[in-house]
Amino acid sequence: MEADTPCRALEVGLRPKYLSALPCLACMSAGAMQGDEKRIYRIGENGIRAPIVIQHSDAEFPSEACAAGREAAYRTGSTNVSFVVLSLVVGANGRAQDVKVTRTVGLNLDVKAVEVLRTFRFKPAIMKDGTAVPVYGTIEVDFHLPKKCFPNAKSAENSK
What are the chain's domains? Predict the structure, then answer.
């Protein structure tokens, strides 16, 4: 896990592929854009640089999703079984706020993606003058099928 890794280049089991400038519609409808003190910016607006992931962890793949994950892996030939898309606000304090699932896959993967994203720490988005500001973002979280979901692989390993 590298510090100062841009979201779009993060390579882990739970991998945010990108942090984009899409607004969180729920936040906008709740009036989060009223007044400058509550303003939430967009990446690229007035030269605002994207936040950078500085601390992350992997999500636990839920055991109840193993059977469906194995089926998908056998069908596609890949252990990358699914992804969840989350919208969020990265606060000026570098923490994920207002996390919402925008593309669901079920099987408790959505819950695990939200839980782990809340543990992430970001170097906040920065304005041209160096001021940290909150920004809207979207992160795609990939889930890879862990070895625990292949019972035959476990028994083969234990027999060695």
Answer: 7-158 (3.30.2420.10)
